[in-house]
Amino acid sequence: xxxxxxxxxxxxxxxxxxxxxxxxxxxxxxxxxxxxxxxxxxxxxxxxxxxxxxxxxxxxxxxxxxxxxxxxxxxxxxxxxxxxxxxxxxxxxxx
Length: 95
Fold this sequence. Notes:
The protein has helices at residues 14-26, 43-52, 72-75, 85-92; strands spanning 55-56, 64-65. By secondary structure, it is mainly alpha-helical. Helix 1 (14-26) runs parallel beside helix 2. The protein is globular.
């Protein structure tokens, strides 16, 4: 997902893109994998990522349920809360 860092037109609609992909994957025989680098991605993007992915993998081989997932219809109009990222990540994967 590092293409977001280029700032091309449309990247500001990340949450919409991710939410629409959820609907696409529900009705197709496809699998997607989004890779967000916690060290390089803006906290706003990470927050939107958490809102639009049912499962996450933070470290190691285990896929974890994401308690911060929002239905696509809710995610479309959400506001990022970058100041909550550390607490959210800690709740998902207490290291």
